[in-house]
Specification:
The protein is mostly helical. Helices cover about 70% and strands about 0% of the residues. The longest helix is centred in the C-terminal third of the chain and has 55 residues. The N terminus is likely disordered.
Length: about 230
């Protein structure tokens, strides 16, 4: 009996036929390449392009927070692992990112014109609300014009975050890894210093205890010898 599994044919240009949608690896491609591919997808499937723009934005905002924050990277990752979405990213920015003379909120980092911030924030919030039912199958379709609008909006926010990173010395693809090493090194240095301080305190305490004991023994001995002499 032949137990070999049948080979699953690999999709190719010949097997897929026309039209073709070229998806992307978020981490492997440059942002410009990803943007071009998302915009190309929009010509065929605006809803899918919208979702791809959401992925690109979430990937960028997470790395912006990691790169610009002075907090330990594992702490930030743990916080972002629990929750997702626009409201979570706003809270995470306010909690972890403390830039000197820089944007204090996520929307400040995206929109420089203060008169436009509320409108843009509301539009991003609406885009995430439209994303949820689409991803989870509650709504399999949104109008093409709305999908394209949301796609352009989110691509624009990613571009703005990339500029903010460049302004404050961060890089969307490498800075957070450097931060992690620096943070761990600093944490180790602090831990060693604290251990050294604790050990010194313990030694000093032990010396005081021995000195007190010697004094006490000496006094008792003198008292006993005095009684014997009497």
């Amino acid at each position: 009996m032949n137990t070999k599994k049948a080979k699953v044919p690999i999709a190719s240009e010949e097997t897929l036929g026309e039209p073709k949608i070229c998806l992307f690896a978020v981490q492997g491609n440059s942002r410009q390449t990803r943007r071009e591919r998302i915009e190309a997808i929009a010509e065929l499937e605006p809803s899918i392009a919208f979702l791809a723009a959401v992925f690109d934005f979430e990937w960028m905002v997470r790395r912006a927070i990691l790169a610009l924050s002075a907090c330990p990277t594992p702490d930030i990752r743990a916080y972002l692992k629990k929750e997702h979405g626009w409201e979570t990213y706003k809270k995470a920015w306010k909690r972890f990112v403390k830039l000197e003379n820089g944007p204090t909120t996520l929307i400040d980092a995206i929109v420089s014109d203060s008169s436009q911030r509320n409108a843009v924030a509301s539009a991003i919030s609406d885009a995430f609300k439209a994303r949820h039912p689409l991803v989870h199958g509650a709504n399999g379709f949104i109008p093409d014009d709305i999908a394209k609008y949301n796609m352009k909006l989110l691509l624009g926010t990613s571009d703005a975050l990339e500029k903010t990173l460049a302004t404050y010395g961060g890089k969307w693809n490498t800075a957070f890894m450097v931060l992690r090493r620096v943070t761990r090194k600093s944490a180790l240095k602090d831990a060693l210093a604290q251990r050294k301080k604790s050990r010194k305190t313990h030694v000093e305490h032990e010396k005081r205890m021995k000195a007190n004991l010697r004094n006490k023994v000496g006094l008792n001995l003198q008292e006993t010898l005095g009684k014997c002499h009497d």
